[in-house]
DNA sequence: CTGAAAGCGCTTACAG
DNA sequence: CTGAAAGCGCTTACAG
């Protein structure tokens, strides 16, 4: 009961070659009579044989493993995607290795190296800012990979994401329709394209109403979220530019922002209306349930897995950008419609 | 650039045996002169050699992989632990495979099989109810594993958890001190030991004040959370037994419960005081920030990894139960102290 | 001190 | 139709 049972054990017990055992257990028909096949299966069962997938992988060059790299698996946005990716990968017989980059270029490289050394068949990543060269290297090595949520215009690659510009435009337009005039935005610095697109949507919506002011767009850094939000909010709440609404570019920014608004005893939506990206239990439970842009995480996860596995199974497929749906969930945090 | 570069490529280029390349790259000294070692390392670098860890694993019987099985990776409690486990595992040179059991015995078995076929060196699991036989099978196969959060008194096994009885006792005692007399509890059915311990602590605290009533302890099922909470709460809020406080056994129960209390327009803490287990952003943002039992997830994750890897590296170590810390975080949802 | 050979557990192309 | 052999990419015990 100590050593694991291998095909060799079955072969010896039955008195055939290891190769034959392999054929039978992998159901390559025609190699052996049905009674012998029966016998081999029976002994495999008796010995409680479990295939060693590592050995198979060494042979086949495939591990049926996907490497998933996100900013932080403990962030609900990513853990929700991870869950969907897990389920979808299982459908295809794949297992998922995961890692958190903390938006660090070095950690991202470390995770990529680890996953490649472990022969992951493909990678799914929400890449950190500045990791373009890492993605180019993957392309050069012909490792299939898919970007989720984020992407780089300079790196042609499969990606699955929403139309961030449109989603932001719609969110801000909704605020305008409720009568807000001085709408601030809080986003992440770092220059990631999806953040820029959200800013662009925000800006365009305001410009279309002649209400855009650059000073109302503030950025916080991922590593110093609390301070960044504090600085940004205090800027937006200065008497001379006091905003009547804030558009948060992610759920983390919104949650931190709402905590600080609470601390400042500002009421949502009367003192400040709020709209955000992404979902959160905290949004639902907030005294003024928070309106948000809901990205279809299910579609995002599913498409990412599908593209990743297609990349594994059919080399050199054309590059695809899948744009999944996003809709506005409007609740009390925006106030009521003016018209 | 197509095929991956192997030790063979380096060996050919340098004109030595593959074995020698292996020795040098693994820094087994004394096998070769320093100039030859230098040369091999240089060529490895030039060819951008990456070791194939699959091959090494087949040889060594070790994959440096941990399998993590939780109820649902998208539940913040588990994704927070997963993040800590990820970081800690990385310290030891291990990578983590994860899977969600959805509290299903079948899915749990499927994940265990998958991870063992992939030769995970050890498993860390928050086991679902009814998986005792699966754990016994792991023991029989001498696969190192560690239970986190949950455990079975009938299955001797390494575990890392808090003292659920004590934590619940303290939480309920706090409610009593604030003057609550009719304290209900909402927990999961399924009979998991950690849930029972929380109920036991709740019961003992009330009995110590002569206030225990079995009818005030309600259970919901994991699969029908919303209905279960609705039924439980409506029971607790019947006019004849109307509770003045509810103790929720997990954050999921509490979040669902608070949503329903909101829908019923009941005010926390004036109509009903609330205390829960586990953390949540939603607790922080709730208009009456929710008091909770904070389990030390950091210690839990760290100890789990430590025990798992010790199990891999030193077979047949004694069984250990690590009890990590838990403390009460008291905020407005309990109301103010009476005395 | 060094090199060649065996072997980890499988799969499959290739002789008979 | 079947069996034996080679090989996936490494590591290491074993001869020289």
TrEMBL record, chains A, B:
The keyword Lipid metabolism does not apply. InterPro entries: HTH_LacI (IPR000843), LacI/GalR-like_sensor (IPR046335), Lambda_DNA-bd_dom_sf (IPR010982), Peripla_BP_I (IPR028082). It holds the Pfam family LacI. Residues 5-60 form the HTH lacI-type domain. Keywords: DNA-binding, Transcription, Transcription regulation. GO terms for molecular function: DNA-binding transcription factor activity; transcription cis-regulatory region binding. PANTHER family: HTH-TYPE TRANSCRIPTIONAL REGULATOR GALS, LACI-RELATED TRANSCRIPTIONAL REPRESSOR. This is LacI family transcriptional regulator. It comes from Chitinophaga parva.
């Amino acid at each position: 009961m100590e050593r694991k049972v291998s095909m060799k054990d079955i072969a010896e017990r039955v008195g055939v070659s290891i190769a034959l055992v392999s054929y039978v257990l992998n159901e390559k028909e025609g190699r052996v009579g049905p009674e012998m096949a029966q016998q081999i299966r029976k002994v495999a069962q008796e010995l409680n044989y479990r295939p060693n997938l590592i050995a198979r992988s060494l042979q086949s060059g495939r591990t049926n493993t996907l490497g998933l790299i996100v900013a932080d698996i403990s962030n609900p946005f990513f853990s929700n995607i991870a869950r969907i990716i897990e389920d979808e990968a299982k459908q295809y017989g794949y297992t998922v290795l995961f890692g958190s980059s903390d938006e660090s270029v070095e950690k991202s490289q470390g995770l990529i190296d680890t996953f490649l050394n472990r022969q992951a068949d493909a990678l799914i990543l929400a890449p950190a800012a500045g990791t373009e060269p890492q993605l180019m290297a993957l392309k050069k090595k012909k490792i299939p990979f898919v970007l989720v949520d984020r992407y780089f215009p300079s790196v042609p690659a499969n990606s699955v994401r929403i139309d961030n510009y449109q989603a932001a435009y719609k969110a801000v337009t909704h605020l305008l329709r409720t009568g807000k005039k001085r709408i601030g935005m809080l986003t992440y610095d770092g220059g990631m394209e999806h953040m820029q697109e959200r800013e662009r949507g925000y800006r365009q919506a305001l410009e279309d109403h002649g209400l855009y002011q650059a000073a109302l767009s503030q950025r916080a850094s991922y590593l110093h979220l609390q301070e960044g939000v504090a600085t940004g909010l205090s800027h937006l709440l200065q008497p001379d530019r006091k905003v009547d609404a804030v558009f948060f570019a992610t759920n983390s920014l919104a949650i931190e922002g709402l905590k600080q608004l609470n601390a400042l005893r500002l009421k949502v939506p009367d003192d400040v209306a709020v709209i955000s990206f992404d979902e959160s239990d905290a949004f639902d439970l907030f005294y003024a349930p928070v309106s948000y842009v809901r990205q279809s995480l299910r579609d995002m996860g599913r498409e990412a897995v599908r593209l990743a596995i297609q990349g594994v199974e059919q080399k050199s497929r054309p590059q695809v950008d899948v744009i999944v749906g996003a809709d506005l969930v409007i609740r009390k945090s925006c106030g009521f419609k003016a018209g």
